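Sanity check

After download, print the first record. It should look like this:
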Amino acid sequence: MRRRGFVGILTVVACLVLSGCAQGWGFSPSNSNGKINLTYALWDPTEQIGYQKSIDEFEKLHPKIHVTIEQIPYNSYQPKLTAEFITHKGPDLFWVNTPFLGTWIKDKVMVNIAPKIKADHLNMSQYYPALVQLHQHDGKTYGLPKDWDTIALYYNKDYFAKHHVTIPKNLTWTPDGGGTFMQLLKDATIDTHGRNANSPQFDKNHIASYAFNSANDMQGSYLNFLAMNGSGVFPKAYDQKVSFDNTKGIQTFQYLTDLINKYHVAAPGAELGPNADDSTALQVFARGEMAMYMAGDWNTNSITQSTKFKLGVLPLPAGPSGRASVFNGLIDAINVHSAHPKEAWMLEKWLGSAPSQKILGEGGYIWPAIKSLDKYFLQAWKKKGLDLQPFLDEAQGKTVNWPVSPGMNEALTDMGQALGPIYLGSNSVPAAIRSAADAANHDLSTGAQ
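Expected structure tokens:
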């Protein structure tokens, strides 16, 4: 659950502060043997294993520095750290996900490392340019890129073989339901009598398995389709108004929800989560009740651990404006309240370096943000029998960055609540989009305060 929004951030923050919970980090200048102690916060337990391997090497190079990794569940991550920042505490170095990047820039909790990059002559051209740009604002830089992700289609090879489904060479879609992707979706949706959705006898009221998940999920689903139909969520970074409340946006959401409610080739919204939010889609896929699972590559470990069938990966279908994927990545940020900014910068440089990112790539933990090292992650998963090349192809093709602005995480939550009814078939698309846009615009114009 690497890229999710969550509800009630301000309430949780207030609770943490008032209850005295925000006392866990602190900064001790040294321990009993004279070492500097750094804390490093992240949320992914699988990636933590890889980062520990990297940090072990860092500590060998810097024997006077000890690093403790603090693993915080994602849904608690932003509110817990925000509460710590309010009390001038928090980890020395911490992961930053794009939905809360703009808010933390506004709150001035992250060190601007642009002068440090210049002083140490770091080569920023080694990273994907979009990742560097994503984490810059007003001439300031808030972290070195360390990974990236795109969106593609995991598919059940055994399912496709069993039902004799042939994958078109080029997947395409159009808002009116045309394109080879729709043909594939119909071929891969099977009723309880064994007939696919192309059959005149197909029984839409008794479906055994669906083709894929059309989810109420910005990064994992609809932002990709909006971009491929010439729209988007934001006109530009740090804007205060969304841009999907237009003709192309309405077309796109109508198409995505028609896949569920009109064509019956996508799993019902209620099967994807309480708000059609994709929180349970992996379970449906793992049970063999969904042929394809549209998701980000950070899900690879959980997917391979949850499924027993042979897996493959397909690129996203190309829309009217071509193929496009959401492109996102994480940085490590230095806490402005750290008692050890020099040592925190040393750790940041290490984690952003080629030796560290090679360790993470070779272990199959992340796609390295250093472009020349992507081959190691690709090779690691090929050895495990899974070819993730479509994710890399998309990263090197047309991409759209996650929208950044103060209040984005709150806007994401409110948009999801407003859009949920159209995935569940209980509201009109234009009305839901107006409601979602109004809610998002309020959050963005106020910074969700």
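If your output differs, re-run the checksum step. Summary of this record's structure: The CA atoms of residues 20 and 83 lie 10 Å apart.
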